[in-house]
Design a protein that fits this description.
Elements (H helix, E strand, L loop, with lengths): L1 E3 L2 E3 L6 H10 L2 E4 L4 E6 L3 H8 L12 E7 L5 E11 L2 E6 L4 H11 L5 E4 L4 E7 L3 H9 L11 E6 L2 E6 L8 E7 L3 H12 L5 E3 L1 H10 L34 H10 L3 E8 L11 E4 L2 E11 L6 E8 L8 E6 L2 E8 L9
Parallel strand pairs: 3-13
Antiparallel strand pairs: 1-2, 3-9, 4-7, 4-8, 5-6, 6-7, 9-12, 10-11, 11-12, 14-17, 14-19, 15-16, 15-18, 16-17, 18-19
Length: about 350
């Protein structure tokens, strides 16, 4: 267990590798009750969120969600989040735990009177259940006739007298859901999921497996790969920025970055030979010159070699290019790879 923001979180329950493989092959459950949950409602909610977030809220139908960014005036990433439209003028924002207070302050400072913003985080918990057996697990919990929502959608259900919202999202590259429930139901739902998933080899999973799973998929982590000093274009996440919609905070900075390019880019790489695994803040070298810094790194349980992401000078950011990672004063060879690093067998 470690301190994580204002929470105490498990790094692992059994072992990181065991939990990682459970998600890749069967099913795993992560307690994500630390994540923030905001409700936004009112006649001006849609227009206001479109001015605050990079993706286009207007494209969301009821029950649909999207990945998006909350930016500062410099185009830097305050937070990456998922926004769900849960009513004609009502939205659920799921934000990072370490950014709850900062997000609330920023949003409240820009909020018009036509919008109501509520932090429901203390009253709601959540779990992420991920893996190829997730459909079978939920058929047991909901009944064989129940259908989970499509990818990037959210729907309401009742499980064992507990009202829950189930979103078809995830952070692992596997099929999966995030389930939101009242705080008083948290322990009951957790136990129910573990009991229902026992025959499918379910494992409770901690922060360690979350990190190895997401890094294999090159999903960025706020505070490591994303920060207020980095924008979505240099992070390679321009797909989640709609520069054609009416202006949002940071719009002009991102437009310039897209048109002119950025000094650095976030790349994925793998270590070569018998190199030790990379870690955050290790220096990256190209042709003997320091060209950047690792933001995330680990030993991949699926690939069995070191992998990572790093911001490096754009001129060096070519797939297939050879680089070196400095680890404890010694440089080890690596190669820039196309994202994601892990690709499922078909």
């Amino acid at each position: 267990m470690i301190s994580f923001g204002e929470w105490i979180m498990p790094v692992q329950y059994s072992s990181i590798v065991e939990e990682h493989q459970a998600v890749r092959k069967n099913v795993g459950v992560f307690d994500i009750s630390h994540m923030g949950q905001f409700l936004v409602s009112g006649s001006g909610a849609s227009n206001w969120l479109n001015a605050m977030l990079t993706n286009n809220i207007e494209k969301l139908e009821n029950g649909q969600g999207q990945y998006t960014f909350l930016l500062n005036e410099r185009g830097g990433i305050i937070d990456d989040l998922i926004a769900y439209r849960i009513g004609d003028s009502e939205f659920l924002l799921v934000v990072n735990a370490a950014r709850v207070a900062e997000d609330l302050d920023w949003l409240n400072r820009h909020k018009p009177d036509t919008v109501m913003l509520t932090n429901r985080s203390p009253d709601f918990g959540a779990v992420a259940i991920q893996g190829p057996k997730v459909i079978e697990l939920f058929q047991g919990l909901l009944g064989n006739d129940a259908e989970l929502p499509p990818r990037n959608h959210i729907a309401d259900f009742t499980i064992d007298h507990m009202p829950v919202s189930i979103a078809r999202t995830g952070y692992t590259g596997e099929d999966g859901v995030e389930v939101f429930f009242r705080t008083q139901d948290a322990a009951k739902f957790w136990s129910l999921a573990l009991a229902g998933g026992e025959k499918f080899g379910i494992k409770p999973c901690g922060l360690g497996a979350r990190d190895t799973l997401r890094l294999e998929m090159c999903y960025p982590l706020n505070g490591s790969d994303l920060s207020p000093d980095r924008n979505p274009i240099e992070a390679g996440l321009g797909f989640f920025v709609d520069l054609l919609k009416p202006e949002f905070i940071g719009h002009d900075i991102l437009l310039g970055a897209k048109q002119d390019g950025t000094p650095q880019k976030l790349i994925a790489f793998r270590m070569e030979g018998k190199s030790p695994p990379p870690r955050a803040h290790y220096s990256v070298f190209g042709n003997g010159q320091r060209i950047g810094e690792v933001t995330s790194g680990t030993l991949s349980p699926s690939l069995n070699y070191g992998i990572g992401m790093a911001y490096i000078d754009s001129g060096n950011a070519k797939i297939g290019a050879k680089i070196d990672i400095e680890i404890r004063g010694q440089r080890f060879p690596a190669v820039i790879e196309k994202k994601p690093l892990y690709k499922k067998e078909k």
